[in-house]
């Protein structure tokens, strides 16, 4: 809880302050004032003290003030247009050039302070350049004359910095040698010898928007150019810039708000235009956090608009008694560091709303995130408020005065049932709980610290200390001493005052006389915290040195050796506070880390053992248990733990995720330590995975502040004794003394709405016996002492020991400590403790001592529940701890028990909600029970909807309303439930009201009952009409029986047919010889009906064809065929045979087959023989009579697999026979399939080869994995055009390799070589192919070895000839004559044409002669070639152009050598061979690849 101390500033009398302005870097305040005698002036204050000789004054008023953004320089604009700049650092005054002739209304520095923007009422806008001292240049940067008075200005923030100029990244890159990064720094020149001028960090905001009184909004960019951005309706009141989204807000005097999106160059685009609510007299607008616009328009509320969420809401003054109903908010200010919106009112109050978002995950409305605080108060209506830059300072101006309010946390102190709480700057509330006395103390100083004992009180303000004493009867408080000191840490013990002063602790008397010095060395550091408890004093220094002193003697003596806390605490950064227990053997310490953040651990120094322990509030565990779970698990498993361990785990989960704020020892119990712990913020908690607590449901928000009681012992460490959320009406923990916790109340809870005091606790005045209600202090009974508040010390000690032993799990000692206690209330209280500690074994003992038989039985029966929480909930219910029971059932997700609990408690809305959300299996039961409850409560009308939801209304509602026939009939009429209306019709029928019964039967669509009543009333026509219209089978059957009874046979047959009761209709037809209707009825009926009709027809020779048909339809094929053969119904035989299957009689099948053979219907005969498993006979007929074997027939002819060997061999023979027949019929795929099933893959491959299906041949060869099949497939593929399909060539080579037919592969390579020579004249590739052929042939294992040697020799000879020709062509460029000689030698070789074509040799020679222009020799060679290769077109070997050149050179007609009609045009590109050439390229590439890989031989 904090208060604001007000300090009135020294101002000139008779003046009015108009404007406040804080400097951003220091507590410097500029106050603008004016008076009739003094004119206008600006006064500067430092921390509220007036700075002498700095008043800036003129005869006219100061109209605007603006501080430099980073330096102690303030600019002031005046009514006469003058501009003054005061440098407080150098204490110099600069006067700007007097260029404004009208009052200066705008003053704004750029973001870095290098520019100053000024504007006046005439519309003159000037941009000044400023130096580091604030002096303005004589000539402005630019000047614009805007044709309207200027009203407001706002800077346009600079664009975000370029990541490429990030200084840290550039430095790393520069160190790595990045040339471009080095160029970015000013000390290195760029590549063009140009100095780089890159600026690091954010650039300066020097562009801005200004608004005018005529509605114009103008933009001035960094270059000084001014353009009108847009205009609005009405004078511009306020310009505001939302930087995150680059949105400019413009608000006019009539509260018209417009949003404009701002582009990088200052262009704007309108997004939204809206009229704000509120009054238009002097509205006030501010930003509160990102995108949250706050508006005050002179009402009791302020309006907030969240631009990001598009949400708006209001905050009012309701909820606090300090405000008047006519109070209005005039001005606003926002403190971003503390998240507080402050609003000044017309009655001198400063209302404050603190941003307090929920710590849980529940979505809340915007107004719920802001909590109204206690107001600060000043004299007079508030005109303006401004938050200072630091120290929580707020400047407030009223009409006549200026105040600076400084925030001060209200201090308090408690000792020995005496509590002192500050509730004002100089006001204290003192509560004497021993006597019930209350005192309000007004002091002479503004109190900043309090310390009390049962006999004395010390207060101080950092300059002076005042000591008060209480009289023995606590009725009188008197000052007994006062002395000056700057100490802010003071403690009292008996008649001594202990104060921290510089590097020592002074021991003084109440009058200030120094009695003793407790000095600390430089290594130990200055003392920073001090505490007294019992007879012991503990001191902590800034370096973590802890010292304990014994105060029993006249002087303080060291109780033990000092302890250096820094040696035991990781990341120690200092001591926040220190406390000592009553025995002086344990010290608790709160510390901070090196980064200044408070540590989440509370450390405890065991003085006797000289050891340090800790309790980690972040995990909720003491040092002995604070370890990560094994194997990286995040949650503990409760499967192997007992109730005590489970309770300890849950207690840890309850308080996990917190940080200790205060820690207090009980003044009489040295083991009991009580702490106040706050929840960690979202930022601090982001790495902490909160675990579900079994005592707090996850959907509830985490409690912000908790009180945690700990037991501290050397044997068992630090253990949790109890924890609970601090009640909402309490502000903080003040003290602890068994059996009470003492709390400071919140100021807003002191008064009720009607102005009366809200009383929660009272004590009795020891003298008068009247109840006394403390004003600011409340006490709460400890959990273990409920009902024992007034017990004696022995009982309290026994309960404390019981609680301690129960906490550590020593049940024997726990029961020993309370064995003498006979009070049932004590045992009841202990039983309630077991709900918290989850000790059901202890609870059963407590219930027994209480004599609570019902509870003991319920607890014993609850042992069958699997969840511990469910068992504990049963205990809580028996002890009437209903909130705990509800929480436990919810956390263990036993929604069935929770539902029953709500029902038993009569909380039906919660029961229904639980059933609908989580316990839907019992939803109908819950509705039923609630309906029964309402019925018993005398509210049948409300019970009806719930009976309907439980789907029991068909019985329960008539039962409930049976005594009220009128209401029951009304309910039935309103209800659309057919079964209910049927019941009502039956009820009416039983009462003899047939007409009404018929009506309700019809509405219920109960046609059977409708027809029954009509028949009863002898209205057969109406009954027949109903049956014909509805076709209801039951109604038709009933009516048919009625007609049959009346001997109306035709009508009976008709309605039996409508009822699909064909048996009854057939029976009547037979009895009355209705043969024409019988067959139709039989066909519509069941097989049994058909058989019955067939037997009837069989007995009548005229209708035997119908008998055969009916037997057939009924599935009795043998009987149908028998009768068909007897009566020679061959047409029926054909129909019946089509439905025969393997289940038919074989003899019957044979008879049918013979019948079809006689009638030359061979396909049907074969089909029946196959069904009858006469496979060989069927195949013979297929072969002889050329019956096509379809796929379906082939499957029928295929015998099923059996286990017998003979049957298997027979099956294979049949399969091969099927394959032979298929081959004979040309069905090669079917033959392949059957051969394959028979296991004869060779025949299967032969059949597949005959089919010519290349894809399937390749696939079959691949899966067969037989050499012969590989060779067969390769031989087949050679018969295809393999030259143009690379896949075929690869498959040929692969299959020959897999089949090890290397001689065949050699022949294929030989063919490839010949193709290379004939088609492409590529002798190099041909030589490679022959080489592969030679390799394959040499590896082959031919039966005739001599032939193999002969073929190898031939290949070798051919390869030698080709090599000579290749060599001749290769050496031609170096020695052409030698090449010609070798060609001549080749021409003389025998059988040279088997390797090298003679035409290619002559062509090579002729080209040589032509190239040498030896035309005669060329012509002679040409003639010789014609003689040796007659009948061949020589242009195939010699270029036509070369031939023409030879003939032209010798003047010989070309026709003597070439006949143009015989040219094949191989070298001429035409349409016909384009496709061939394209294929040739493919072939050549494949062959090349084949030679390079060696054919994978």
List the helices and strands and how they pair.
Elements: E1 2-8, E2 15-22, E3 28-35, E4 39-46, E5 49-50, E6 56-58, E7 62-67, E8 73-78, E9 83-87, E10 92-95, E11 104-109, E12 115-120, E13 124-129, E14 142-145, E15 150-156, H1 167-175, H2 179-183, E16 207-212, E17 216-220, E18 226-231, E19 236-242, E20 247-252, E21 256-262, E22 268-275, E23 284-287, E24 292-296, E25 301-306, E26 311-316, E27 329-335, E28 340-345, E29 349-355, E30 370-372, E31 376-377, E32 384-387, E33 393-397, E34 402-409, E35 412-415, E36 418-424, E37 427-432, E38 437-442, E39 449-452, E40 456-460, E41 464-470, E42 477-484, E43 490-493, E44 496-501, E45 504-508, E46 514-519, E47 527-533, E48 536-541, E49 545-550, E50 557-558, E51 563-564, E52 572-580, E53 586-593, E54 598-606, E55 611-616, E56 621-622, H3 643-655, E57 658-665, E58 672-679, E59 705-713, E60 717-725, E61 730-737, E62 740-745, E63 763-764, E64 771-772, E65 777-781, H4 793-808, H5 811-817, H6 824-837, H7 840-850, H8 853-861, H9 868-878, H10 882-891, H11 895-905, H12 908-917, H13 923-936, H14 940-949, H15 953-961, ...
Antiparallel strand pairs: 1-34, 2-3, 3-4, 4-5, 4-6, 7-8, 8-9, 9-10, 11-12, 12-13, 13-14, 15-16, 16-17, 17-18, 19-20, 20-21, 21-22, 23-24, 24-25, 25-26, 27-28, 28-29, 29-30, 29-31, 32-33, 33-34, 35-36, 36-37, 37-38, 39-40, 40-41, 41-42, 43-44, 44-45, 45-46, 47-48, 48-49, 49-50, 49-51, 52-53, ...
Quaternary class: single chain
Number of strands: 65
Total of helices? 46
Mean pLDDT: 81
* Beta content: 25-35%
Distance between the termini: 96 Å
Q: Residue ranges: pLDDT <50 for 5 or more in a row?
A: 186-199, 632-640, 683-699, 749-772, 1461-1487, 1489-1497
Query: What general outline do the C-alpha atoms trace?
Result: extended
Instruction: Determine Rg (CA atoms, Å).
Output: 56 Å
Helix proportion: 25-40%
Secondary-structure class? alpha+beta
- Profile the largest sheet: 5 strands, antiparallel
């Amino acid at each position: 809880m904090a208060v604001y101390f007000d300090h009135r500033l020294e101002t000139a009398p008779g003046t009015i302050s108009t404007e406040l302005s804080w400097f951003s870097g220091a507590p410097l305040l500029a106050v603008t004032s004016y008076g009739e005698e003094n004119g206008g002036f600006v006064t500067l204050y430092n921390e509220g003290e007036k700075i002498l000789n700095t008043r800036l004054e003129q005869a006219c008023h100061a109209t605007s003030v603006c501080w430099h953004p980073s330096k102690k320089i303030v600019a002031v604009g005046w009514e006469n247009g003058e501009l003054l700049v005061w440098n407080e650092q150098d204490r110099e005054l600069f006067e700007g050039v007097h260029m404004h002739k009208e009052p200066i209304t705008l003053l704004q520095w750029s973001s870095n302070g290098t520019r100053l923007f000024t504007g006046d009422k005439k519309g003159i806008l000037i941009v000044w350049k400023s130096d580091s001292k604030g002096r303005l240049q004589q000539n402005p940067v630019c000047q614009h004359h805007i044709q309207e008075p200027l009203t407001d200005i706002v800077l346009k923030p600079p664009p975000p910095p370029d990541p490429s100029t990030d200084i840290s990244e550039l430095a790393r890159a520069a160190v790595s040698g990045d040339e471009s990064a080095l160029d970015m720094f000013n000390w290195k020149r760029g590549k063009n010898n140009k100095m780089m001028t890159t600026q690091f960090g954010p650039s300066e905001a020097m562009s801005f928007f200004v608004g005018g009184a005529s509605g114009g909004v103008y933009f001035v960019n960094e270059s000084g150019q001014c353009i009108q951005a847009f205009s609005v309706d009405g004078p511009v009141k306020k310009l505001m810039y939302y930087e995150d989204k680059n949105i400019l807000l413009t608000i006019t005097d009539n509260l018209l708000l417009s949003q404009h999106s701002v582009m990088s160059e200052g262009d704007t685009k309108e997004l939204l235009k809206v009229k704000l609510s509120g009054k238009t007299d002097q509205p006030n607008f501010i930003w509160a956090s990102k995108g949250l616009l706050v508006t005050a328009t002179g009402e009791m509320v302020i309006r907030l608009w969240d631009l990001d969420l598009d949400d708006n809401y209001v905050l009012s003054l309701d909820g606090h008694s300090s405000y008047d109903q006519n109070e209005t908010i005039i001005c606003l200010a926002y403190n971003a560091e503390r998240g507080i919106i402050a609003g000044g009112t017309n009655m001198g109050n400063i209302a404050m709303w603190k941003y307090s978002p929920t710590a849980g995950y529940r979505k809340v409305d915007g107004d719920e995130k802001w909590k109204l605080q206690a107001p600060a108060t000043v004299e007079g209506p508030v005109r303006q408020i401004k938050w200072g830059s630091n120290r929580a300072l707020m400047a407030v101006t009223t009409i006549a005065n200026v105040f600076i309010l400084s925030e001060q946390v209200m201090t308090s102190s408690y000792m020995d049932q005496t509590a002192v709480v500050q509730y004002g700057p100089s006001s204290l509330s003192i509560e004497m709980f021993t006597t019930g006395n209350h005192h309000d103390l007004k002091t002479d100083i503004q109190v900043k610290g309090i310390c009390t004992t049962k006999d004395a009180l010390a207060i101080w303000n950092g300059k002076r200390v005042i000591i008060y004493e209480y009289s023995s009867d606590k009725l009188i408080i008197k000052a007994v001493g006062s002395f000056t000191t700057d100490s802010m840490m003071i403690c009292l013990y008996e008649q001594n005052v202990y104060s921290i002063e510089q590097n020592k602790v002074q021991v003084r008397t109440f009058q200030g006389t120094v009695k003793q010095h407790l000095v600390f060395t430089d290594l130990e550091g200055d003392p920073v915290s001090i505490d007294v408890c019992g007879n012991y004093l503990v001191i902590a220094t800034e370096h973590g040195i802890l010292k304990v002193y014994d105060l029993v003697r006249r002087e303080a003596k060291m109780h033990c050796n000092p302890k250096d806390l820094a040696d035991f605490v990781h990341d120690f950064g200092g001591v926040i506070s220190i406390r000592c227990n009553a025995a002086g053997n344990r010290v608790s310490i709160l510390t901070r880390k090196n980064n200044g953040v408070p540590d989440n651990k509370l450390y405890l120094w065991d003085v006797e053992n000289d050891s340090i322990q800790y309790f980690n509030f972040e995990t909720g565990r003491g040092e002995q248990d604070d370890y990560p779970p094994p194997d990286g698990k995040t949650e503990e498993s409760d499967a192997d733990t007992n109730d005590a361990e489970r309770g300890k785990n849950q207690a840890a989960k309850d308080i996990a995720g917190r940080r200790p704020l205060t820690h207090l020892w009980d003044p009489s119990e040295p083991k009991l330590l009580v702490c106040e712990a706050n929840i960690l913020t979202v930022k601090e908690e982001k790495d902490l995975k909160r675990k579900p607590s079994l005592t707090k449901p996850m959907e509830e928000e985490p409690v912000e502040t908790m009180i945690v009681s700990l037991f501290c012992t050397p044997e068992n460490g630090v253990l949790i004794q109890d924890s609970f959320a601090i009640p909402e009406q309490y502000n903080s923990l003040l003290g602890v003394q068994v059996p009470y916790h003492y709390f400071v109340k919140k100021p807003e809870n002191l008064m009720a709405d009607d102005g009366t005091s809200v009383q929660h606790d009272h004590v009795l005045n020891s003298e008068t016996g009247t109840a006394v209600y403390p004003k600011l202090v409340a006490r709460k009974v400890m959990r273990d002492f409920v009902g024992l508040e007034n017990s004696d010390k022995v009982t309290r000690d026994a309960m404390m020991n019981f609680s301690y032993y129960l906490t550590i799990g020593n049940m024997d000692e726990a029961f020993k400590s309370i064995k003498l206690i006979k009070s049932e209330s004590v045992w009841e209280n202990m039983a309630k403790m077991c709900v918290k500690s989850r000790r059901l074994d202890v609870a059963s003992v407590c219930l027994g001592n209480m004599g609570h038989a019902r509870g003991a039985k319920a607890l014993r029966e609850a042992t069958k529940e699997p969840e511990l929480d469910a068992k504990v909930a049963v205990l809580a219910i028996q002890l009437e701890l209903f909130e705990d029971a509800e929480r436990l059932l919810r956390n263990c997700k036993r929604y069935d028990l929770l539902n029953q609990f709500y029902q038993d408690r009569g909380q039906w809305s919660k029961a229904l909600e639980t059933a609908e959300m989580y316990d839907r299996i019992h939803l109908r039961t819950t509705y039923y029970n609630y309906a029964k409850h309402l019925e018993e409560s005398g509210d049948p009308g409300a019970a009806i909807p719930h009976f309907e939801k439980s789907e029991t209304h068909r019985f329960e509602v008539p039962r409930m309303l049976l005594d009220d026939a009128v209401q029951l009939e009304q309910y039935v009429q309103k209800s659309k439930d057919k079964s209910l209306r049927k019941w009502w019709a039956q009820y009416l029928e039983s009462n003899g009201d047939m007409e009404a019964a018929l009506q309700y039967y019809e509405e219920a669509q109960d046609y059977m009952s409708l027809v029954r009543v009509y028949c009863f009333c002898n209205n057969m026509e109406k009954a027949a009409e109903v049956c014909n219209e509805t076709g209801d089978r039951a109604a038709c059957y009933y009516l048919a029986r009625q007609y049959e009874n009346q001997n109306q046979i035709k009508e009976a047959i008709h309605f039996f047919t409508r009822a699909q009761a064909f048996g009854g209709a057939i029976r009547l037809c037979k009895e009355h010889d209705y043969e024409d209707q019988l067959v139709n009825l039989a066909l519509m009926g069941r097989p049994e009906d058909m058989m019955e009709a067939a037997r009837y027809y069989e007995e009548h020779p005229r209708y035997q064809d119908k008998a055969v048909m009916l037997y057939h339809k009924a599935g009795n094929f043998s009987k149908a065929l028998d009768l068909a053969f007897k009566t020679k119904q061959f047409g029926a035989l054909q129909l019946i045979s089509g439905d025969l299957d393997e289940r038919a009689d074989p003899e019957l099948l044979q008879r049918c087959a013979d019948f079809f053979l006689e009638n030359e219907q061979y396909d049907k005969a074969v089909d029946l023989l196959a069904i009858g498993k006469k496979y060989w006979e069927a195949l013979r007929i297929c072969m002889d009579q050329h019956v096509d074997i379809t796929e379906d027939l082939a499957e029928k002819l295929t015998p099923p697999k059996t286990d017998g060997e003979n049957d298997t061999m027979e099956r294979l023979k049949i399969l091969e026979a099927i394959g032979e027949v298929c081959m004979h019929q040309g069905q090669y795929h079917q033959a392949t399939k059957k051969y394959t099933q028979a296991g004869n893959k060779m025949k299967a491959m032969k059949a597949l080869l005959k089919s010519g299906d290349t894809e399937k041949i390749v696939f079959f060869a691949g899966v067969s994995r037989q050499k012969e099949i590989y060779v067969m497939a390769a031989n087949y593929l050679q018969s295809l055009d393999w030259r143009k399909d690379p896949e075929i060539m690869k498959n040929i080579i692969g299959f020959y390799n897999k089949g090890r037919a290397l001689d065949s592969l050699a022949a294929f390579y030989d063919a490839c070589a010949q193709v290379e020579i004939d088609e492409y004249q590529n002798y190099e590739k041909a030589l490679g192919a022959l080489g592969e052929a030679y390799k394959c042939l040499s590896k082959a294992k031919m039966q005739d070895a001599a032939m193999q040697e002969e073929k190898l020799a031939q290949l070798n000879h051919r390869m030698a000839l080709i090599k000579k020709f290749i060599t001749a062509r290769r050496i031609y460029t170096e020695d052409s004559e030698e090449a010609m000689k070798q060609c001549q030698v080749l021409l003389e070789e025998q059988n040279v044409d088997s390797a090298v074509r003679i035409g290619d040799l002559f062509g090579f020679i002729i080209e040589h002669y032509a190239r040498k222009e030896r035309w005669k020799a060329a012509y002679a060679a040409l003639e010789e070639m014609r003689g040796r290769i007659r009948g061949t077109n020589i242009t195939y070997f010699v270029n036509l152009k070369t031939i023409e050149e030879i003939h032209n050179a010798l003047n010989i007609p070309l026709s003597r050598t070439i006949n143009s009609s015989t040219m094949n045009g191989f070298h001429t590109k035409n349409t016909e061979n384009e496709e061939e050439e394209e294929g040739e390229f493919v072939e050549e590439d494949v062959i090349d690849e084949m030679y390079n890989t060696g054919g994978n031989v």
